[in-house]
Structure formats: structure tokens, C-alpha cells
Amino acid sequence: QVQLQESGPGLVKPSQTLSLTCTVSGGSRGTSSYYWNWIRQPPGKGLEWLGAISSSGNTYYSPPLKSRTSLSRDTSKNQFTLQLSSVTPEDTAIYYCVASTMVGVTTRRLGDYWGQGTQVTVSS
Predict the structure, then answer these.
(1) Cβ atoms within 10 A of the Cβ of 110, count?
(2) Is 107 exposed, middle or buried (0-12, 13-18, 19+ CB in 10 A)?
(3) Hey, which residues does 122 pair with through a beta bridge?
(4) What does the alpha-carbon distance between residue 117 and residue 39 come to, in Å, rounded to a whole number?
(5) Which end of the chain has fewer CB atoms surrounding its CB within 10 Å, N or C?
(6) In a 3-state reduction of DSSP, which class is residue 4?
(7) CA-to-CA distance for 69 and 19, rounded, in angstroms?
(8) What angle do CA 118, 121, 124 make, to 5 degrees?
(9) 86 close to 70: Cβ distance less than 8 angstroms
């Protein structure tokens, strides 16, 4: 059973860079086939896929956010990180990390593993 836990600041000021970390535990067998996705849900809106990183380090980004998004991973710590630059109040959302066999997750699918989500508010 793969478990994911998001961590990071709950409040970020406009124009700053948001940095979130997802720590992965359990399920060491078979995790090399997963893509590690970041997804968010703004208040009152649907799920939005931000990007993903593969177990081999290949990265995939949502085109509208590509210029502001950076994904990385630290295999020694079983962690992967999202950085979103130049944030605005429109980036306020619950941010999730998701382990999936696919890139571009926008719905909860059987077999995917979701973190509990972390609320990020962008405000001065």
C-alpha cells in the first residue's frame, strides 16, 4: 500500500514561489512503474493537473502552467517536490500528490494513490 503525504506552507504571498513536498512510504514493490503527479483543486472548481515526474526522472507539465512549474525528486528520501513560481490568489487550492500509472490524472481512479491534500492560500 503506497502512502503519500504532502507538506509545505499553508500561506504564500503573491509573487513568491510555492514549494510543496510529497513523501512516499510503503509499496516499494512496483512503484518504479508509477508517475508521481501533482493535482490541485481551487475552491468551488474541479481537479486540475499540474504535472508529473516519472520514476526515471522524466517530467511532464500542464501547458498553461509549464512556465511557472518545476518538478524534482529525491530518491534517497522518497520525496518529490513541486515548485510553482509567481503565485497569485488564483493559485489558492488544495494541492494533492498522486501516484498513478498514467500522466495527467484529473479524476480519482481505482489503483491510484492519493495524498490527503494540503491547503495552500495565496494572500498578502
Answers:
(1) 4
(2) exposed
(3) 12
(4) 9
(5) N
(6) strand
(7) 10
(8) 155
(9) no
Q: Which amino acid is at 18?
A: L
CA angle 68, 71, 73 (to 5 degrees): 160
Dihedral of the alpha carbons of 9, 116, 113, 30, in degrees to the nearest 10: 60
Identity of the amino acid at 77? K
Say which residue the cell 512510504 belongs to: 25
From first to last of the 124 residues of the chain, give the pLDDT tens digit: 899 999 999 999 999 999 999 999 986 666 678 999 999 999 999 999 999 999 899 999 999 999 999 999 998 999 999 999 999 999 999 999 999 999 998 899 988 999 999 999 999 9
Residue 19 to residue 106: CA distance in whole angstroms: 21
